[in-house]
Design goal:
CATH architecture of the largest domain: 3-Layer(aba) Sandwich
CATH class of the largest domain: Alpha Beta
Number of strands: 26
Number of helices: 25
Largest sheet: 7 strands, mixed
Structural class: alpha/beta
Radius of gyration: 24 Å
Distance between the termini: 57 Å
Shape: globular
């Protein structure tokens, strides 16, 4: 019998980059534990990591191309499948125009090294402007604010949690997520360290989350009103002359414009709409400004709402005007070994914002894509530019995007649809051809995106644990060969590892010779040090200054003010606001095909406050009917005083009821699809990001 061996790598299920120690024999996983010597996670591991073995051994996983026929799915050879896909796409574009083919990129692409390098090639080969991704149901406002303030959508500030004295968390639950747009394994321990050194954590959220339970203070806020609170805090900073710019003082444009804009949003003005007293807003702002160091961190609850762009802009503004940007303990910027910002510099190039608008809803083209809220319209609405063909890569938009029922009708109407995905899921089951890639343990691993967002500068690479079978193809190989066919060229001979090494050897730490060979010699990673002030050397704006008052954001204040003036009471037709929530053992829809992650009690429930439950005669475990403008669902109730009154919560990404999908494990605990309720006409009109928090709904005992 072969001996047990040990492999070290980074978990790539979520953003936390936890180091793993995997013991295995031949093709069998013996154990998956946290790597105590990992330079970022120090042995921390969450329950999701153990599912990596389930993904590798999953009997539902595809390994060769399949084509949908009237008799069912049939297997194709790789060359035959790629030829057919290229020919069908070229035919559609020749007949209807270049934009008649659309693309959708799912969240897992950010966790795949090869996809990071080869997806741009596919997009260039297709030449279509009809590009969509999971970004616009997630973090697009972060990129929008960074692009306009700092000159690059990936120049994103990260909380320096290991050194801060005061942290405000708006709409985030990092004890469960281990950070999001903030790669922070073992947030709970780091949070406790803040408190142990005399610091404080405040959570502002319509739900008393797991993070709020352990914070020093939790403040309920009406969903979708975070921009008002942030503006009121900024108003107080100016009104009380608490502005401190420190070393950034000579490198900021627009300070007076922000001061003027904030005058209309005093605590007295916004208190009613936010549900927070003026006194509490004042106390919160004063504590933030007098702390030795402080940082405000806004995440999903702030991003996926009707004023997401303003929320993320105002978060940055608050950190800047209180002297907490680019400073130890504040909001800082990474200096990653593979530097996305330096390698994709936008300096000297005009912004693409507003250069194009979507055909049906007129939404702006942002970050080289259109908001996914208009994807169904672009497929269903006849006329020049109508999408007739689609390719999705590692995505399940029929569960994760707004108005699932409408999007399903859209996908059913396509002339031709191709999925690059290892599963027949609720979306890909509509595909004509599926091209399956490999899974994590069969791939080289380096987190380009999340080293860029980490709370400490580190670098780490891992070779594949298992060699893929001869009949399998990596995602990047599929993308490379398909792109070549579309362009009538040969596939590029360069590999992702060659691209990675070139970037490492020419990057910030080129004097340290960060070759792949060196990284292989350091399986626990290499610590490159804590975050340091570096913004002034990394700015990508044309004038090398921070743009504190970008025109699109300043103009959007009128919409915020108009909403405030119209605010009285909730509509009697839809008296509740629906928000999402993160579950510890769930991340994306594909995680639900791991029995280790879905076993146990049903966690896909509706959380409701006892007073609201009593009013509607709802008891624990009873089914509740929830209705929005676009749909309705029945879901099990869970009564808890952790909810704000008038607010209910349902986790996103569930609803595995489609009998034509082949996720046999997920179907044993399918959950309910919240996006049957989310409205594709409700979005942040500045960025186009979908509204998944603050959805107007009504409820009744089912």
């Amino acid at each position: 019998m072969a001996s047990i061996q040990t492999h070290y790598r980074t978990c790539n299920i979520c953003e936390a980059m936890c180091g793993l120690q995997i013991q295995y024999r031949d093709k069998e996983i013996i154990s998956i534990r946290g790597d105590k010597e990992d330079v970022l996670s120090y042995g921390h591991i969450c329950p999701k990591a153990v599912a990596l073995q389930d993904f590798y051994t999953d009997k539902d996983r595809l390994k060769q191309p399949v084509m949908r026929t009237d008799q069912g799915w049939v297997t194709l050879e790789w060359e035959e499948a790629l030829d057919e896909v290229a020919q069908r796409f070229l035919y559609i574009q020749n007949k209807y125009g270049t934009d008649a083919v659309g693309t959708y990129l799912g969240n897992p692409n950010a966790h795949k090294l090869g996809n990071s390098f080869f997806l741009p090639g596919l997009l260039r080969a297709l030449k279509t402007r009809n590009r969509y991704s999971a970004s616009s149901v997630d973090q697009l406002p972060h990129h929008f604010a960074a692009n306009y303030m700092f000159g690059h959508g990936s120049l994103l500030p990260v909380p320096d949690i290991d050194h801060t004295d005061y942290m405000i968390i708006i709409g985030g639950n990092p004890i469960i997520s281990n950070g999001s747009m903030m790669t922070c394994p073992n947030f709970g321990k780091r949070m406790k360290a803040i408190q142990d050194r005399g610091g404080n954590i405040v959570v502002i959220d319509p739900r008393r989350t797991e993070t709020a339970e352990k914070a020093d203070l939790h403040i309920f806020i009406t969903p979708g009103t975070d921009a008002y609170l942030l503006f009121a805090m900024i108003h107080l900073v100016f009104a009380n002359e608490w502005v401190t710019l420190r070393h950034l003082s000579d490198h900021i444009d627009g300070l007076e414009m922000v001061r003027s804009a904030a005058q209309n949003f005093s605590p007295d003005v916004v208190s009613d709409i936010c549900g927070i007293s003026p006194e509490q807003i004042y106390a919160l702002t004063q504590a933030f400004t007098v702390a030795p160091s402080a940082v405000c961190y806004s995440r999903m609850g702030a991003s996926t709402q009707q004023f997401g762009g303003l929320c993320l802009w105002l978060t940055n503004v608050l950190n800047i005007i209180t002297g907490n940007m680019d400073r130890s303990g504040g909001a800082m910027f990474t200096q990653p070994a593979y530097d996305i910002v330096a390698l994709t510099s936008k300096k000297g190039r005009p912004s693409s914002y507003g250069k194009y608008h979507s055909r049906v809803k007129g939404l702006p083209y942002i970050n080289s894509e259109y908001p996914v809220s208009t994807l169904a319209d672009e497929i269903l609405t006849p006329g020049e530019g109508q999408i007739k063909g689609m390719v999705t890569v590692a995505g399940n938009p029929l569960l994760t995007c707004p108005n699932s029922s409408k999007l399903k009708k859209a996908f059913e109407s396509l002339d031709f649809y191709v999925a690059i995905d290892p599963y027949i899921n609720e979306t890909t089951r509509h595909a004509d051809i599926i091209l399956p890639g490999t899974v994590a343990l069969e791939e080289s691993q380096y987190d380009i995106a999340f080293h860029n967002l980490a709370v400490r500068n580190t670098v780490k690479y891992a070779e594949p644990l298992f060699v893929k079978q001869d009949n399998q193809r990596h995602d990047w190989e599929i993308l490379n060969r398909l792109s070549a066919r579309l362009k009538g060229e040969k596939p590029t001979p360069i590999t992702p590892l060659q691209m990675l090494e070139m970037g490492l050897l020419s990057g910030t730490y080129k004097d340290q010779n960060l070759s792949l060979a060196k990284l292989i010699q350091h399986p626990h990673g290499i610590d490159l040090g804590s975050l340091k002030p570096c913004l002034l050397t990394r700015l990508q704006t044309q004038n090398d200054k921070i743009n504190l008052a970008p025109n699109p954001l300043i103009q959007d204040i009128d919409r915020l003010r108009s909403h405030l003036l119209r605010h009285h009471k909730l509509s009697p037709d839809y008296p509740f606001r629906l928000i999402g929530r993160r579950l510890l053992r769930s991340h994306n829809t594909w995680c639900h095909n791991s029995y280790r992650l879905i076993k146990g009690r049903n966690e896909c429930t509706l959380l409701i406050h006892p007073d609201d439950a009593s009013k509607y005669n709802i008891e624990n475990g009873k089914m509740v009917n929830v209705i929005s403008r676009v749909g309705q669902i029945n879901i099990e109730a869970q009564i808890t005083d952790a909810m704000m009154t008038g607010v209910i919560s349902i986790p996103q990404g569930w609803g595995h009821h489609d009998k034509e999908s082949q996720l046999s494990v997920a179907q044993t605990n399918p959950g309910i699809n919240m996006n049957e309720l989310s409205d594709d006409d409700q979005m942040d009109h500045l960025t186009g990001n979908a509204v998944l928090n603050g959805i107007p709904v009504q409820i009744a005992l089912a």
